[in-house]
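Q: Sequence in, structure out?
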Amino acid sequence: MILPIVAYGDPVLRTVGKDIDTSYPKFRELLENMWETMYHANGVGLAAPQVGLPIRLFLVDTSPFADDDDLTKEEQKTLSGFKKVFINAKMQEETGKEWSFNEGCLSIPDIREDIVRNDTITLSYMDADFKSHTETYDGLLARVIQHEYDHIQGILFTDKLSSLKKRLLKGRLNNISKGNISVDYRMRFPNAKKAR
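A: Exactly. Output:
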């Protein structure tokens, strides 16, 4: 089932997610719904807060990036085969050089900005079977994971912009929260009269 994606301005996007365990109700169904929702919206990642759930869960599938001709064959191979569920993720380390990349977000449609992040991360998390892992990622893979990880920390990519950029975007962000925007996927707008 395709779930509505929560738009900018909803308090759930500012909530630090809670850990979950194997007793989480209808977990498998939730995962299926989140994958379906993400693919329907042409996303490469989706976090539970974006579908209204303040829990530490996000999904990543970077295969759409694998077609980028600017990437090396090795990078394309890594991105094309990467599809994972991250449960109760905790950032252990962010290292390497900082680099800028143009990011967008399904909860903030039609706004894209260059965001600076470290190029290497080490993350501990549980997979879809609640098995524990600690892994290091770099490059574009690290960036997608960092973006989704921020969601379970109550952080949006727009928080990383300068004060001037935030002021310039304020009107557009307000319009998104009111539903004054056209999108081709289901959304729930916090300040609109009804969801679309």
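Strands lie at 5-6, 45-47, 57-61, 83-105, 108-126, 132-138, 187-188.
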